[in-house]
Amino acid sequence: MTAVPRLVLSAPSSGHGTNALSIGLLAALADRGVDVAGFKLGPDHVDAAYLGLAAGRPGRNLDPRLVGAERLLPLFAHGAAGAGLALVQGTMGLYDSVAGRPETESTAAVATVLRSPVVLVVDVAAMGQSVAALVHGFRSYDEQLWLGGVVLTQVASPRHETMLRQALDDIDVPVYGALRRHELPPVLPSRRHGVVPVVRRDAEAVRAVRRLGEAVAGTVDLERLLALARSAPALTVEPWSPAAGEPDGGAPVVALAAGPGGSYSYAETAELLRAAGAEVVAVDPLRDEALPAGARALVVGAGLPESYARELSANRRLCIAVAELARTGRPVLAEGAGLLWLARELDGLPMCGVLDAVGATRDGLVVGYREATALSDSVVTGTGTAVVGYKQHGAVLTPRAGQRAAWSWDGGSPEGFVWRGVHASQLGLHWAARPGIATRLVAAGVAEGVGAPA
């Protein structure tokens, strides 16, 4: 049995203030001495990073599509261990699913699996008594859902707040807070910066989280929300464990693209590498001019943003070091923009030159899940292995794949590069679904490199 006080924050749709409220709530409770843990539903690295900054422990992602529905509860219990409150920030609307699978992948479905009360965040800027009809509809749509109450945002005035509270009282729905239009300020750094402000612990990001915490502390009934969270029943689940065996040949140093505030990978990546016997050492692709001493492998997660191409290119010494690591056959695993970093150039800027490919930024984003099949044996997996990954990128490579491609999927040409110990692709994986990646990479790091093309 695992007793974890918990809440799920969701909304009727995107744009109601759930992200800012989730960050502010974690920051406000942490400031009061509550040990809090933050989770983001879905693959988004950015929201999870800010939840982690507010909580003071790694923000984590719960994604039934990437990790499998059977791993949700164990991963949640692992990430929430010891917390006085675990908060899950939903995605899109309460009953929405980007992949069209609301019965298993919506915020409502995950809340039901977690046996967690849901707090609905509602933007009431253009709404009066109709808020009661809206909330009643969300509460009654699924009888398995536990709607514990609401927080109102964009409230116009005290009179407006009174009207809204009375309407919700008539349907017996608690209101845990009412925030005026100026009380959730847009203070977070632009999303074009991705997770970089958190990874680097930039002062702007730290101040923004503190301001959101102050706003929530002054407007939301924290004690009543804690009481609601504590009413959630114990979970009958064993927490997920990254445990693995020690490698033969010692503990290789694995460089993980990261900074003082976290990494560009999901939090479980570093845990799995350590459990597999690696000594994980951070390397900042934007600032560090050398790989860690003795590095025998490099991992670049999909959270590295494409918008920092100029800074990546300017760090020539590290580019040269990465190219040399790859040339000698050491494992280099790059996801997302990490693939672009390994290319010859991106938008005319020189990159690491590991891959004979050129990147170019285009209008629009490629976003979505992919059910992929491995086309080559690599440090990631064996040929024919099926995986589920996630893509989000605006830049593309020419060619799209090397002589040995990484993946194929329905409706698309082969994608990615496998060369010597390199596996590079714009497809991001959650390693908790495939812990063997860590053991393969560590074993390859222990083995001797190669000096001839594979």
Please sum up the structure shown.
The protein has 454 residues and is an alpha/beta fold. It is built from 16 helices and 19 strands.
Question: Would you kindly provide a written description of the structure presented here, covering whatever features stand out?
Answer:
- By secondary structure, this protein is α/β, with parallel strands linked by helices.
- 32% of the residues lie in helices and 24% in strands.
- It is built from 16 helices and 19 strands.
- It has helices at residues 18-31, 45-55, 64-67, 72-79, 102-105, 107-114, 130-141, 158-170, 196-199, 203-217, 222-230, 267-275, 309-314, 316-327, 337-342, 436-446, and strands spanning 6-10, 36-41, 60-62, 85-89, 118-123, 147-155, 175-180, 253-259, 262-263, 279-283, 295-300, 332-335, 345-346, 349-350, 358-374, 386-398, 407-408, 417-419, 422-425.
- The strands form three sheets. The chain has a seven-stranded parallel β-sheet with strand order 3-2-4-1-5-6-7, with helices on both faces.
- Strand 5, helix 7 and strand 6 form a beta-alpha-beta unit.
- Helix 1 packs parallel to helix 2, helix 1 packs across helix 10 (203-217) and helix 7 crosses helix 8 (158-170).
- It is elongated, with a radius of gyration of 23 Å.
- 54% of the residues are buried.
